[in-house]
Amino acid sequence: MAYTTKIDLPPLVREQLVRLLQQRLNDAIDLAAQLKHAHWNVKGPQFFQLHQVFDSVHDEVEGAVDGLAKRIAALGGVADGRLKTAVKGSSLAEYPMAAKGGAAHLDAVSAGLSRFGEGLRQDIDVACHLGDAGTSHLFAQLSRESDQLLWLIEAHLCDIGCTEARS
Ligand SMILES: [Fe+2]
Q1: pTM > 0.85: yes or no
Q2: Rama region for 126: left / alpha / beta (φ>0; ψ in -120 to 50; rest)
Q3: pLDDT 10s digits, 50-68
Q4: CATH homologous superfamily for 11-159?
Q5: Helix 133-161 × helix 47-74 angle, to 10°
Q6: Which of 77, 83, 109, 140 is deepest in the core (most CB within 10 A)?
Q7: How far is the CA of 48 from the centre of ligand 1 (A)?
């Protein structure tokens, strides 16, 4: 571990937790940048609404970046916030440069949020098995928030023309 701490979790466990947290931090930094890209570049009749929605989702994701980084620090690790680290380590797909209209940006943003949420959901159990309910709960909280953001984005997609669910 990078730093000694009196926290009652063994260094080997903390190392594994920090690795998990860093993976999600990489994703979150990438996702935040993707949201700014969408915020700046979206075009079309829904421009203003989407411009604002992408910025508000960006701000929420920045909150996740901060929460993940601070948990790494609390565990005695180094929160690697370098963009080059995030680029190398992110599990998100490359944001499509061809995206122009609202539907394309909503689709790309929802793909990023979905992948981020998927990783967080897997990490909940892994952190729990490592014996750290605190980190596990952080993953659970961020996963719930990420699901809410995905709902917010997908609700806009439906407005543009989704397939109605049939009962
Ligand atoms: Fe802005």
Answers
A1: yes
A2: alpha
A3: 999 999 999 999 999 999 9
A4: Ferritin, core subunit, four-helix bundle (1.20.1260.10)
A5: 170
A6: 109
A7: 11
